[in-house]
Amino acid sequence: MHLLKKHPNGKGLQGIKIARPHDMKRLSACNRTVARPYGGVFNATEVKERIMRAFLVEEFKHFKTLKTTGDKKDKKKKKGSKKESKDAKKWV
């Protein structure tokens, strides 16, 4: 009984070694974490979803600003096109 060790209960994330706390402390940093954002906290699919969500939010904000500025430009073009047609009729 004296020589038996406790078995580690790990997260089982890809790229992280499973070890007891004291053994984990002795491992090098590259064995304790994963070389990606949120290393070791989220798995690869969760990181991918977060990146995709952030990208889509930024794209939506950009699209909203383009849509509002595009409406203003369209209104100006409509007003300007009437004036140009009146001026063109005077000279013809």
Q: What does this entry look like structurally?
A:
This protein is an all-alpha fold. The protein folds into 2 domains: 1-41, no CATH class; 43-92. It has 3 helices and no strands.
In short:
It contains three helices and no strands.
Kindly report how far apart the N and C termini lie: 108 Å
What is the number of strand segments? 0
Strand count, sense and barrel status of the largest sheet are: none
Number of helices: 3
Tell me the β content.
under 5%
State the shape.
rod-shaped
Mean pLDDT: 77
Structural class: mainly alpha
H/E element order: HHH
Total domains, how many?
2
Which ranges are low-confidence, i.e. pLDDT below 50, for 5 or more consecutive residues? none
Q: Please give the share of residues in helix.
A: 55-70%
Radius of gyration: 31 Å
Helix-strand layout with pairing:
Layout: H1 21-26, H2 29-32, H3 44-91
Key traits:
single chain; 92 residues; mainly alpha; 3 helices; 63% helix; 0% strand
